[in-house]
């Protein structure tokens, strides 16, 4: 959010306490009014900045709720007003690393769905940094109608602030009050660990993803619970980055305290890790079984072919576009923002075998 937006937000101070007592935040924001009124934050902004673009009934309802909560509209900034003009016909998708085929798939599926709806797509590569992600969205905000965040590195609070200005959908990130679309790895991970246990594996290492990744936290908690049920010991190996190079570097820490099996945060890391083991003349799957997560095309081309957890990336990308366009067109119910979940499954290939 820009300095102007911060000033705009600060200008909205509670004029008085509501009929139900002081507001829980100490000040009332557009998001608070939107939640109480059952509409999108952009609709609240439009009701004050351009009331002619919102029905008289909805405007009256929003103003009544705002008065009850003690919300007083300040100066409408140029950026806020820009969100209330004619549609630009352009969405933005933010990805953590466009070099990773996973994000290329999200982008491709989102672009196809945009084109089917007569929209264009702007692609922003945050390079795994929240600062670049925030700065790029600030620059793009005047030109886009909505935002899709694919594995965002922004904080929950930062994402909520973005959602006050533009319709927003998060992929692979669950945030209260924000519509999300999640390719859930749970079922596939359960199948993978069950198969490894059948093959006699009693210990497993997890090659971790970025600390700022919501998905990494989910995968680690899910993995520890599954391994507990199957009697498999599990440990975590931190990685410098979720890339081929990051996975390769994990080999050094692994050989100091090896396990019979490994699950990587993603396929790219798994492939880098296998390369590291092969450079040390450690056999996969003869000595170590390796599983990735994502099911990228490259996994079926390397030697040995990579066992992995398949995620429904294309469906998730398409659905994210559908959801953000529904918000842009005001045809969805902002009070019904449950995460949309897509299941996963395990794909067994040559990189796993019987435990030694």
Task: Write structural notes for this entry.
This protein is of the alpha/beta class and 356 residues long. β8 (261-264), α12 and β9 (289-294) form a beta-alpha-beta unit. It is built from 13 helices and 12 strands. It is elongated and about 70 Å long. The strands form 2 sheets. The protein has a 6-stranded parallel sheet with strand order 2-1-3-4-5-11, sandwiched between helices. A 6-stranded mixed sheet has the order 7-6-8-9-10-12, with helices on both faces. It folds into 3 domains: 3-81, lambda repressor-like DNA-binding domains (434 Repressor (Amino-terminal Domain)); 85-183 and 314-342, Rossmann fold (3-Layer(aba) Sandwich), CATH 3.40.50; 186-311, 3-Layer(aba) Sandwich (Rossmann fold). Residues 1-25 and 74-84 have low confidence and may be disordered. Residues 28-82 form the HTH lacI-type domain. InterPro entries: HTH_LacI, LacI/GalR-like_sensor, Lambda_DNA-bd_dom_sf, Peripla_BP_I. One of its GO terms (molecular function) is DNA-binding transcription factor activity.
């Amino acid at each position: 959010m820009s300095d102007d937006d911060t000033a705009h937000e600060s200008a909205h101070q509670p004029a008085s306490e509501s009929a139900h007592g002081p507001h829980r935040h100490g000040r009332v924001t557009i998001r608070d009014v939107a939640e109480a009124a059952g509409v999108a934050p952009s609709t609240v902004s439009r009701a004050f900045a351009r009331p002619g673009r919102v029905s008289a009934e909805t405007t009256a309802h929003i103003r009544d709720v705002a008065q009850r909560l003690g919300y007083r509209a300040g100066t409408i900034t140029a950026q806020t007003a820009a969100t209330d003009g004619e549609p630009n016909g352009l969405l933005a998708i933010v990805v953590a690393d466009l070099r990773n085929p996973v994000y290329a798939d999200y982008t491709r599926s989102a672009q196809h769905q945009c084109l089917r709806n007569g929209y264009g797509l702007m692609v922003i590569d945050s390079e795994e940094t929240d600062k670049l992600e925030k700065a790029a969205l600030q620059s793009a905000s005047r030109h886009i109608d909505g935002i899709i965040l694919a594995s965002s590195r922004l904080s929950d609070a930062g994402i909520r602030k973005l959602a006050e200005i533009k319709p927003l959908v998060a992929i692979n990130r669950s945030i209260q009050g924000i519509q999300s679309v999640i390719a859930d790895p749970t079922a596939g991970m359960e199948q993978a660990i069950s198969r490894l246990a059948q093959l006699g594996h009693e210990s497993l290492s997890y090659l971790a993803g970025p600390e700022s990744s919501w998905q990494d936290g989910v995968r680690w908690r899910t993995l520890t619970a599954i391994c507990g049920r199957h009697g498999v010991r599990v440990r975590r190996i931190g990685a410098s980055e979720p890339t081929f190079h990051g996975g390769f570097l994990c080999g050094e820490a692994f050989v100091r305290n090896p396990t019979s099996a490994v699950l990587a945060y993603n396929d790219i890391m798994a492939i880098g890790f296998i390369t590291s083991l092969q450079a040390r003349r450690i056999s996969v799957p003869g000595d170590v079984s390796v599983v990735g997560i994502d099911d990228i095309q490259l996994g079926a081309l390397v030697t040995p072919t990579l066992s992995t957890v398949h995620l429904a990336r294309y469906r998730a990308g398409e659905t994210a576009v559908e959801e953000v366009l529904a918000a842009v067109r005001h045809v969805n119910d902002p009070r019904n923002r449950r995460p949309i979940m897509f299941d996963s499954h395990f794909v067994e290939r040559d990189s796993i075998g019987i435990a030694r």
